[in-house]
Amino acid sequence: xxxxxxxxxASYAITLPxxxxxxxxxxHARNLVQCGVPPEQVTWxxxxxxxxxxxxEEFDLPAPGAGAPWVRASRAFIELAQSAILHSDPHRLAxxxxxxxRSQGNSRSxxxxxxxxxxxxxxxxxxxxxxxxxxxxxxxFRSVEDEDGSERFVAWFEPEHHILRASAGFFVRRFTQMRxxxxxxxxxxxxxxxxxxxxxxxxxxxxxxxxxAEELWxxxxxxxxxxxxxKVGAMLKEMPRKYWKNMPEAALIPGxxxxxxxxxxxxxxxxxxxxxxxxxxxxxIGEAIRACRRCPIGLLDNQAVMGEGLKQAELMVVGEQPGxxxxxxxxxxxxxxxxxxxxxxxxxxxxxxxxxxxxxxKHFKYVPRGKRRLHQSPTAKxxxxxxxxxxxxxxxxxxxxxxxxxxxxxxxVLGKTVSISKAxxxxxxLDDGSELWVTAHPSYLLRLKDEAKExxxxxxxxxxxxxxxRLSELAE
Length: 476
Ligand code: URA
Known about the structure:
The protein is of the alpha/beta class and about 475 residues long. The chain has four domains: about 10-130, no CATH class; about 140-205, no CATH class; about 215-270, no CATH class; about 275-475, Uracil-DNA Glycosylase, subunit E, CATH 3.40.470.10. It is built from 18 helices and 16 strands. Strand 12 (about 365-370) and strand 13 (about 370-375) form a beta hairpin.
């Protein structure tokens, strides 16, 4: 909405109906610049706030003429503005317009960190990023029964800024399989497994207070709480008390802190990290890995990928970690490496439907490069931490044979590093009477060319054929 204001010089009052609507702000700002309206002649507000007292009837800004100048906005400015606009400061809209206006005369003005407007915009953007981080880390879902009897997960959160819509994609990716709602005083978001929709603001009393999902979180938190790493100051900084009331595990914190010294001594004496009780079903492992943050990979923007396949499979095939496509789909081996694996399994006469497929590490580790996410190998430590989950799956599926694809997978099974070229082609007996077979990772085959590729494909095929033969022997 744009209205001219009675004043010696024409001025305009602009109201954004939705406070985080960057596109609308950008369209108005572009028009104003093209019409040569300086910042002091514009009053910006958002619906629900007072706006300009002198604003009169609504008027459209005159359309910029044919000779209107191009509006210049650097990528750095757009990125800054996209974050800063989510801040709750009512002056941010005017601030961003001032910056845009000034950058028309001097495109480098946005780089001047000493400039109070630039500094303020950067502070706003930083506060927004922090709020988004907090939301990702501290949203806690409670299970409720929907009207149709199905399960829905509902969370209550109080963001400081207008970050709900900007954060929704993260929750969709991470909790794609769940039906969930996030309720906040600024609005609500609902995901039904396929469609994301927006709803009105909510109150804390609209969200359920507690249920078994809470119990799960508490148990999970108690199991990952590592007294040796306890730094109360840092913990409070990362997990401000404001959020504690929404977090079931926060009720445990005082007790855990108090008991931490004794637990630390016990841990050091035992020479182990405490892992709590091992989940007893594949479904509970699936739930627990979704929340796993024992290593930094779980903090990336990704989702846990659980193993899948026949629950009592004779053969368990283990990869390194989900790749980009597996992360998006939430399923193992559905990308290029999976297709290579499928083709070779078929040639060896092994039916994928009869196999349990999983990974040594449950989250996708990557570095962002523009729009792409480049695969990073997990460290030995990260594989060892994730072994807890892999061993849980193994204890439930009880395969007779395990085929490890590549060195990371072999480490996930054995807890130590082996050389693929030395270990492949023979059975390695495991403590529970099953056998480990080791081969290369299919993505290695994808990276090779010409003769080297053909040679490695032959070796891979021979390894799979040997596993197929061993499976038939065991079946006799
Ligand atoms: N590579 C793996 O190791 N696992 C997958 O699930 C996909 C690619």
